[in-house]
Design a protein that fits this description.
Layout: E1 7-13, H1 20-28, E2 36-41, H2 48-56, E3 64-68, H3 75-85, E4 90-93, E5 98-100, H4 104-114, E6 118-127, E7 143-145, H5 148-153, E8 164-166, H6 181-191, E9 195-206, H7 220-236, H8 242-264
Parallel strand pairs: 1-2, 1-4, 2-3, 6-9
Antiparallel strand pairs: 4-8, 5-9, 6-8, 7-9
Helix pairs in contact: 7-8
């Protein structure tokens, strides 16, 4: 890999006219610019496409690419379409309702250049609302290796807008998953022996609570069912035994009950 890594940014979007400009602006503000931004519109019916087209007109052809799907297939399919189009050595994932710190690509991609044993890295994310001030980026931070069990037990250890993955990775998102698609892919990568690490520095901003608000995170029970099904799939593939499956499902249900309590106490 060259010293100046080629990064493609992938943004799936669906009815995101209220947030897509913030997401795109955070990419344009990067100190290390990507070679391309691929926006895959998953059948939006609002003004999302018009807003992205206005952004496209301000840049050289091919830098900001808009792909319009003929209907709503789901975020997994949209991400796969963009992934297969990407030409960069590294692929950075960003959701249309989130945003990045200006140094996100610079810090994370340079780390992956220096650590070519890593197939994927993530970093800390911070939830911001209203007029919250983003945290100051420290000069030094730790790096945590991520294991499959860590991800199975603590689902928020890796968040989608923090992911930077090598484009050559042979695995893709499962189009049948609409809620835990990112976690299932990450578990496959880890269980296949690829090395993953998290930079303990906040470089992405989540502009809604982790669960209980608008968007996919509002469908708590659907998300929970998807998580339970992931553990069943892993057992059927011989990657978990029956006891491990039961223990993980019990732990997951306890976390689900806690989420319900938090949402209802707001």
């Amino acid at each position: 890999m060259s010293q100046d890594p080629l990064v493609s940014v992938l943004i799936p979007t669906y009815n995101s006219e209220k947030t897509i400009c913030r997401a795109l602006s955070s990419v344009f503000a990067q100190t290390l610019q990507p070679i391309e931004i691929i926006v895959v519109d998953d059948g939006s019916t609002d003004g999302t496409v018009s807003l992205v087209e206005r952004f496209c007109s301000g840049f050289k052809p091919g830098f900001l690419k808009l792909v319009r799907l003929d209907r709503n297939y789901g975020v997994s399919h949209a991400r796969n379409v963009g992934w297969d189009m990407a030409s960069g050595e590294l692929l950075a994932l960003l959701d249309s309702d989130d945003s990045w710190h200006p140094r996100k690509l610079e810090i994370q991609s340079n780390y992956m250049v220096d650590h070519d044993e890593l197939a994927l890295t993530a970093h800390r994310c911070v939830c911001l609302s209203g007029h919250d001030v983003p945290p100051i980026i420290p000069q030094h931070w730790n790096v945590t290796p991520i294991s499959p069990w860590q991800l199975m037990l603590f689902s928020c250890s890796l968040r989608t807008p923090s992911i930077l993955v090598r484009r050559e990775m042979p695995y893709r998102f499962d189009p049948s998953e609409r809620y835990c698609e990112d976690r299932y892919l990450l578990l496959w990568i880890l269980l296949r022996g690829y090395k993953v690490a998290r930079l303990e520095v906040p470089l992405a901003y989540i502009h809604k609570a982790p669960y209980g608000e608008a968007g996919l995170s509002s469908h708590l029970w659907e998300s929970e069912k998807s998580e339970l099904e992931i553990f069943s799939r892993l057992r059927r593939k011989g990657l978990l035994n029956r006891g491990q499956e039961i223990a993980l499902k019990g732990w997951s249900l306890l976390k689900y009950i806690r989420r319900l309590w938090v949402c209802r106490s707001r």
